[in-house]
Amino acid sequence: MPEFDLIARIAQRVGSRGDVVLGIGDDAAILQPPAGQHLVVAMDTLNAGVHFPSETAPGDIGWKALAVNLSDLAAMGATPAWCTLSLSLPGSDTAWVDGFLDGFLELARTHGVVLVGGDTTRGPLSVCVTVHGFVAPGQALRRDGARVGDDVWLSGTVGDAAGALTQWNAGQPMTAALRDRLDRPTPRVALGCALVGLADACIDVSDGLAADLAHVAVASNVGIDLHCPDLPASEALAMAFAAQEQLRLQATGGDDYELCFTAPTASRAAVARIASELQLPLTRIGTVTSAAGQVRLLAADGTEWLPPRAGYEHFAG
Ligand code: ADP
Ligand code: MG
Known about the structure:
By secondary structure, the chain is of the alpha+beta class. The chain has 2 domains: 3-135, CATH 3.30.1330.10; 150-298, PurM-like C-terminal domain (Phosphoribosyl-aminoimidazole Synthetase, Chain A, domain 2), CATH 3.90.650. It has 10 helices and 12 strands. It has helices at 3-13, 58-76, 94-110, 160-169, 176-183, 189-194, 209-220, 235-240, 243-252, 268-278, and strands at 20-22, 30-31, 38-47, 79-89, 114-122, 126-135, 151-155, 201-204, 223-227, 259-263, 282-289, 295-298. A 6-stranded mixed β-sheet has the order 8-10-7-11-9-12. The protein has a 4-stranded mixed β-sheet with strand order 3-6-4-5. It has a two-stranded antiparallel sheet with strand order 1-2. Strand 4 (79-89), helix 3 (94-110) and strand 5 (114-122) form a beta-alpha-beta unit. It starts with a helix and ends in a 19-residue tail after the last strand. It binds adenosine-5'-diphosphate and magnesium ion. Adenosine-5'-diphosphate binds at residues 7, 10, 24-27, 85, 87, 115, 117-120. Adenosine-5'-diphosphate (ADP) is lined by residues 7, 10, 24-27, 85, 87, 115, 117-120. ATP binds at residues 118-119, 143, 206. Residues 147-292 form the PurM-like C-terminal domain. Pathway: Cofactor biosynthesis; thiamine diphosphate biosynthesis; thiamine diphosphate from thiamine phosphate: step 1/1.
C-alpha cells in the first residue's frame, strides 16, 4: 500500500477538537492554543529492539509510544491537547498500522488528545511522537524546584516493568500483571494536573527511580534520601522476586512512568486528598536534604544501600 493510502487510513480514524484549525492533510497543521497559556512540548522515540522487544504487539507499541510522551507532559503538570506521529516502517503493512492505531488512538481518546500530523517513511521500525499541552504561565512542575525539607512522593508502584523485562531477558514467561505495565504504562495525566500549585518539583520515572531523582537533585541543587522499606511494590512484583532483587528493580528499574514529586510537609493532607480523589496511591518515600546532587537509598537501619546497577543509559558502556 502506498504511503498516501497509509496516511489516509490514519487520517480517517483520528478524532477532532475545536482548537484544531487544520489537521492531517496539508503541508502542516494549524492549531489554536488557548489565550494566556504556555505551550508545553515533549518528544520521545521508541526503536524496535531498544525500547520494546521486536515481537511486541503493534497495539501495545502504539499505546506505549503515546503513553511515554503523555507521561512527560504529566510530569510538567500540563494538560495534553495535540500530538504528531512519525512512523518509520520496514514495509507498508496495513494490518500492523491498524493494530498500532488501535492502541495509540485508544489512549489518545482517553485523554482527549488529537493526532494532527506526522510523517511516514520506510526504514527500520521506529516510532516518534510529539505531544503538545498547556499550562498556566509559571505553574509548570519542573525538576529544579525541590526545596530542602520537602517530602518525596511517588505515585503507584515501581519495579513492575523492569520485573517483566528481567523475566523476558531470562527467557522466563512474564507475569501477566508485570507485562501489562511494561506494554501499557498508565501516564499519570490527572495527577500531574492536580499537583500544579502543590508540588515543588516533579519527574516521571522512566529510567529508574534513583537515576531520575538524581536529575531532580542536580537541577534543584539539593540531595534526596529515599527510605527503601517505604518504596511501594505491587503484589505481583513481590510474588515474583526475592526481597533484594525486588528492591533493585524498584530503585533502578525504568519504564514504570509513575510520577515522583516533592512537596512541603505542610501539604501532606492535600496530597492525601488528591490520592483519594484520583484513587491512586501516593506514598511518601523520602526527604529532600541539603547534600547537593546526592541521592541516597537508606535501608531500614539507616545504612546506605548501593544498588548493583544504575538506571538505563543509552550510551553507557
Ligand atoms: P509532506 O511531503 O508535505 O511532508 P506528507 O506526505 O509527509 O507531506 O504528509 C501529508 C500529510 O499527512 C501531512 O498533513 C502530515 O502531517 C500527515 N501525515 C503523514 N504521516 C503521518 C502520520 N504517520 N500520522 C499522522 N499524520 C501523518
Ligand atoms: Mg512529510
